[in-house]
């Protein structure tokens, strides 16, 4: 696996973020950080697409954002290149937004895992609506028109290859 670091996401920033998550088990906290970074990538690239987030990912976003200078640098290096000032969480998933978000996730970041699907309300919503399991979710997301994907060679593709931040930094 490519060990090139993600833009503006250092080991120190990762460790401070995990430390800000309280008593979460380390492996869980690291996976939550990876999924939150995926959320930020999609939210930055498509700022008008509502993204309903789980409380776990919202708390990671807050831990990332509390480190203001690091967060500002991270945001400028995301695909959209602008500060994400709004909460990533909140709101209920809708059919159209959920389908697009699932397609964007699968086509830009790879398939959902059992653990990642639990953290994305859009994934859970689509699974219920389509009455499918995880493989059906990933098949559907791979076949829908996402309207955008990460550019080839983007360092953010690496997020789809890992389960924990320790594999990134």
Descriptive notes:
- Helices cover about 55% and strands about 0% of the residues.
- It has 8 helices and no strands.
- With about 170 residues, it is mainly alpha-helical.
Keywords:
169 residues, mainly alpha, 54% helix, globular
Q: Give the rounded overall mean pLDDT.
A: 89
Shape call? globular
Unreliable stretches (pLDDT < 50, length at least 5) are none
Q: Which structural class fits the helix and strand makeup?
A: mainly alpha
Helix content: 40-55%
The major beta sheet can be summarized as:
none
Distance between the termini: 12 Å
Write a brief caption for the model.
With 169 residues, this protein is mainly alpha-helical. Helix content is 54%, strand content 0%.
Secondary structure layout:
Layout: H1 11-19, H2 26-45, H3 55-65, H4 68-77, H5 95-109, H6 114-119, H7 121-130, H8 134-143
Helix pairs in contact: 2-3, 5-7, 5-8
């Amino acid at each position: 696996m490519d060990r090139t670091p993600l833009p503006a996401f250092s080991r120190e920033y990762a460790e401070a973020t995990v430390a800000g998550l309280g008593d979460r088990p380390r492996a869980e906290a690291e996976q939550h950080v990876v999924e939150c970074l995926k959320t930020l990538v999609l939210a930055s690239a498509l700022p008008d697409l509502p993204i309903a987030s789980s409380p776990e990912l919202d708390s990671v976003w807050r831990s990332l954002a509390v480190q203001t200078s690091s967060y500002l640098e991270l945001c400028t290096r995301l695909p959209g290149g602008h500060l994400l000032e709004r909460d990533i969480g909140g709101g209920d998933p809708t059919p159209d937004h959920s389908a697009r978000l699932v397609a964007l996730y699968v086509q830009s970041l790879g398939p959902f895992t059992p653990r990642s699907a639990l953290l994305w309300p859009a994934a859970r919503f689509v699974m219920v609506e389509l009455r499918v399991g995880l493989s059906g979710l990933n098949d559907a997301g791979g076949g829908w028109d996402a309207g955008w994907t990460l550019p080839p060679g983007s360092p953010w593709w690496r997020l789809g290859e890992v389960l924990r931040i320790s594999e990134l930094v």
